[in-house]
User: What shape does this take?
Amino acid sequence: MSLFITSLNSGSNGNCYYVGNDQEAILVDVGISCRETEKRMARLGLSMQKVKAIFVSHEHSDHIRGIPVLAKKYQLPVYITPGTLMHLSGVDHSKVHHLSAFQTVLIGDLEITSFPKVHDASEPHSFIVSCRDVKVGVFTDLGIVCDQLIRYFSQCHAAFLEANYDDDMLDKGGYPYYLKQRIRGGKGHLSNKQALSLFMTHRPPHMTHLLLSHLSKNNNDPKLVEDLFTNCADGINIIVASRHQETPVYYISSTIVQHEPLGQLGLSF
Assistant: This one.
């Protein structure tokens, strides 16, 4: 089996990640509008009819603002922790499914496992999506690299991994001191160096794609991040997820190493 993945948007202005197979798919977070989600998926040739559920990582607006409208329009179940749900209004509670730590949810042939992460939110969770022997992780909004993150990252064939800020840019930038401390204080976000250390130390030999995600608009630079990771990639395809547009769709397989996006291969899906 294989998985198709794309970042529909990644950044403080909105986050939305697509993971699916030939039959079904899920969205992790919907922090952009319903209309924008539909437009971006349509440009990629992805059908909303294949989306069977939304999984919510935490309650910050850049991760949830599009959920009520999208879930209602397509009658999608929303998987969310009780603490996170307290901050999300406008969702039909008959469509809500409570998540708990280390729970595995089956959506067709997809297995979605949630696990706690460290972030300044009520009950924040990360996710790993499996389809038989193929695994994709969605790891953003991370205050630290904890043991659970290491455990799941080291299993992935592909991952969305936060690389939020460059230390020097944050130090020299115009953010007030309290905000700088919030970002780097252990419950905020991962720096480029922290993400790179995780990648270099714990990437598995079967990893083929790394999508660097949730870059800060003011405290990071996409080219800087791309160069930093590409220099250490050792054949892994490095993609910087944009805060302005969707990435191509990438094909993730346990048996075929595929380094080109599907749009460049002329495949339909």
Notes: The first strand starts at residue 2 and ends at 9. The chain is about 25% helix and 25% strand. The domain at 2-263 is CATH 3.60.15.10 (Metallo-beta-lactamase; Chain A).
